[in-house]
Amino acid sequence: MKLTGREKSELIGEGVITVILLLLLNLSIFVILDSALKNNPGLSSAVFMAKRSIHIGTYQLWSYQNLFIVLMGIADVWVVYWRLERRYKQMQLRHIIAELHYIADGHFDHRIPFNLKGDHQRVVDSVNALVDSVIHSMDEERAIKQSKDDLITNVSHDIRTPLTSIMGYLRLIEDHQYKDEDDILKYTHTAYLKSHQMKSLVDDLFEYTKVSQSDPHLEINQIHVNSMLEQLAASFELEASQKGMEITSTCEPENLVMTGDAEKLGRLFNNLIINGLKYGFGGKNIFLNAHQIGDEVIFEVANDGAKIPESAQSQLFERFYRVESSRSKETGGTGLGLAIAQSIVEMHHGTIDVHSTDERTSFIIQLPLKYEARTK
């Protein structure tokens, strides 16, 4: 920390005034002591005998005057240092307060740059850490607000599109703009499909809001991993065969047991399997694999369909993101399935990632073998 010219003058003035006061104090004490020796013969005699006893040849090592000067000199140096050090720390504190005012005026990217010693450095570190924490909270708040705005915008857009179609076809029927009963059936069927698309979006949105809560409720129980994967494979066997695909499952070891919310984990793997069935274009297989490594269970949901573009892989878990919007509309995708999957994984304190090549697209999920609630 650099002192200003005024502060340096203050320190010099403080030192000069302190020295003058100490000299006056020393002189007063010396006069009082000398007067006491002159007025007290017994004390004066004792001092004289002490002076005689400490000689080297004819050289007198000390006198009470010399002793007084040495002791007072040591005391004076300590007092001057203490006063200057105290005043310097006051100046440091003044600089810290000035920096705080500067930050409070809106310069939130500024940090106190001082490297001090002792308690003042701890104050500086604490202030900088506090400012970082506040800025982080503000950024999070802005991100949450932006996220809510984006959510409303996306939901409004995705609901408005099928709703407009439904209203349009119903208006045709209402205005009798049809030729025969076949036209009516075609219009109502299209309206039904669009309403089903809206329901799918609302259901996914409701599920996403549930799993994205800050304090979600989990029903923790034991899960036999091999049985869970076999049940998942069996439940999607018919749908996979209709798409010309085969779904298989493996688990090592076979008796692997973990703890977690079975319902939510079932939704997680349902979403990943549905994603593979919808978008694994040209693929013939869907693989459900699990194995244990240490105190973690590694799951893989993979397909041998078309590769996901590298530019899209980093955005797959964003809400409402679709790799190809036209294909998503055809398949009825809402863009929330993978966002829900990621939220469920995070609820279980795990991670999810995607790896995609020309031969295989894999979603890798790492979950703890034993779920443990964490306090915030």
From TrEMBL:
Gene3D superfamilies (UniProt xref): 1.10.287.130, Histidine kinase-like ATPase, C-terminal domain
Source organism superkingdom: Bacteria
Enzyme superclass (EC): transferase
Topology in the lipid bilayer: Multi-pass membrane protein
UniProt cross-references to InterPro entries, sorted A to Z: HAMP_dom (IPR003660), HATPase_C_sf (IPR036890), HATPase_dom (IPR003594), His_kinase_dom (IPR005467), HisK_dim/P_dom (IPR003661), HisK_dim/P_sf (IPR036097), HssS/ArlS-like (IPR050398), Sig_transdc_His_kin-like_C (IPR004358)
Major subcellular location class: membrane
Enzyme Commission designation: 2.7.13.3
Localization terms from the record: Cell membrane
GO cellular component: plasma membrane
Domain Histidine kinase, first and last residues per copy: 154-371
Protein name: histidine kinase
